[in-house]
Amino acid sequence: MSSKREQFFMYDCPELGVARTPGNQLGPHIFRYLRAITYAMEIPDGKRGVLFDYGCGSGYGTEMMGSMFEKSYGYDPEQIAILYARKMHDRSNTYFNWVRADHDIAIDFAMMLDVIEHMTPQDAHEAVGWIADRLAPEGMLCLSTPVARTRDGSNPSNPYHLHEYQPGELWEMLRNHFTYSTLRVVGGNIIGCVKK
Q1: Taking CA atoms, which of 40, 64, 75, 187 is between 20 and 30 Å from 52?
Q2: Within a 10 A sphere around the Cβ of 46, how many other Cβ atoms?
Q3: Helices (H), the chain
Q4: Any idea what DSSP says for residue 16?
Q5: pTM
Q6: Alpha carbon distance, N-terminus to C-terminus of the chain
Q7: Range in 49-63, 91-105, 109-123, 170-184 with the lowest mean pLDDT
Q8: pLDDT at 141
Q9: pLDDT at 105 (0 to 100)
Q10: Domains of the chain and CATH, by start
């Protein structure tokens, strides 16, 4: 295993039959996808064209949300995750890839649920910018991440996290690309949507 993200995926993915880390449950992840559904429902019918799940892991969330959109794309840098997602969540309107396509795509709803804490701040900023550049005019990004225990994001609560954010620090990164936010702290996590 070469990266913390790769190690996290391998040790924290029950869908692959691998033991979970103590105290880290699947339930909160599903809750965040259910919260994302409520935000996606704000998009009027007929305008839910493209869903993009950045850091989709095993793909269960992409599939969970996919029926609401004409096309759903799941991206994860870990090839093993994408191969599993393709096997388990094969739908005619759902596509999974471990290579982030840099072609033009108009995203109506993007998700980064429990993803940015596994990236360096520089990589997270680049990923958010990549999404912002591809959002449709009325598109939105839904994200969640744990609240940092320290002001500078050091000493993360999970050994697989590279950086955790305070709400103000997260907004500082997001405001370079977005003007509207519903970010809130819920149960030790920052969750919400941002729009251009």
Answers
A1: 187
A2: 7
A3: 4-11, 26-40, 60-66, 79-88, 121-134, 167-174
A4: G
A5: 0.83
A6: 37
A7: 91-105
A8: 96
A9: 83
A10: 25-195 (3.40.50.150)
Per-state percent for the chain, helix, strand, coil, to nearest 5: 35, 25, 40
Q: What is the pLDDT of residue 130?
A: 93
* Residue 114 zone, left/alpha/beta (φ > 0; ψ -120 to 50; rest): left
Question: Whole-angstrom Cα distance, residue 24 to residue 166?
Answer: 21
d(CA 143, CA 32): 9
Work out the angle between the directed axes of helices 4-11 and 79-88 (0-180°, nearest 10): 40
Under 8 Å CB-to-CB from 68, ≥6 apart: which residues? 37, 40, 41, 48, 51
The Cα–Cα gap between 68 and 37 comes to 9
For strands 180-181 and 189-195, give the pairing. antiparallel
Q: Is residue 93 a contact partner of residue 61, using CB atoms and an 8 Å limit?
A: no
Q: What is the pLDDT of residues 55-101, one digit of tens each?
A: 998 898 899 898 899 999 999 998 998 999 999 988 899 999 988 77
